[in-house]
Structure formats: C-alpha cells, structure tokens
Amino acid sequence: MSYINATDLQNFTNKIVDSTDTETLALFTQYCEAAENKIKSFLGYNPEYSEVLIKARGNGGELFNLKTKAFVSFESFVIGNKATDPQVLELSETPQYCRFVDGSVFDKTTRYAITINQGFLTIPAEIKTCALQIATLYMESGGGNLAVSSTSYADTGTRTFNNYKAERFLEEIKDYQIKEF
Question: Whose CA is closest to 124, among 44, 45, 47?
Fold first, then answer.
C-alpha cells in the first residue's frame, strides 16, 4: 500500500503522461516508492496504518520503546514465552513509549514481544506533500538533470545556485519523527 502514486505525482507536477506510456508511468511509480522509503527512514517508522511486531529485551526501566509516533492500539503482548493480556500496558506521556499499568519494570533478563496497530488511517497532509516534493525532486533529477535552480544578479554580475536535497523537504515533517533519548 502506498499513499502517493504516479497519478498524484502527475497532478502535483502538472506533468500529465499518456496512459499508454507505461515506461514513464513505471518511473513515476518508482519515484513515489523511493520518496516514501526516504520518509519512512527519516521518521523511523512507516506512517501507513499497519500491524507491527516489536521484540526487545527489557531495559530494567519502566518504559518500552514502541518505535512509532502514530500508535493506535495494543494487539498482543508476550513476556518470555507467555502470552499476556495487553491491557496490562498503557501508553506513557511520550506516545513513543508504553509502560506497565501497575508500574512494574521491563526486566533486563526477559524478552518482550508487543504487537501494535500503528500509523495513520489518513496520512497527514504534511507527510503526503513532503513525499510528493521528494518524488518531484527525484523526477526532475532523472536523465542526468540536476535539481538546481539559480538566480542571476545583473547589478553584480553574480549568480547563486541552489542545490535541492530531500532533507530540505523532510525538515517540514520533523515533528512526526521518532526521537531517541
């Protein structure tokens, strides 16, 4: 499942491709997939709604890192090899972490497996726009082109070049990014 596609990219860039041009449409799809992967890597999680299994050894503390900022619900919880009711867990004040309702700690000698539902049912506009901007950057950089703009200054005879990188667009979605402490 993806949250941007070749049609979205065509509409965003106003570069409409004939539906019989399967080669270009495949490239547009590839740019969209690459942009989504770049965003997933930047955020530290997939923003699309999905079920995710998180396995880790306890850290001796009260918090367990869910590795998402888009938590929806707990599905299952396993301590060691024993299935446990996930209702013994609650989300902490920092939505990237959960904890035991009774205040217990995640024992360092024990492995835990938590299955959660995470992601956005509707991808936030900031993330979708960022993905389209990055896909456009990839599209404009194709065929040996550089994603560069320039400004000439007649009064000084100088020219300024701006090289566009994906990081420029990712800055706009940093509030959705997982922060490690």
Answer: 47
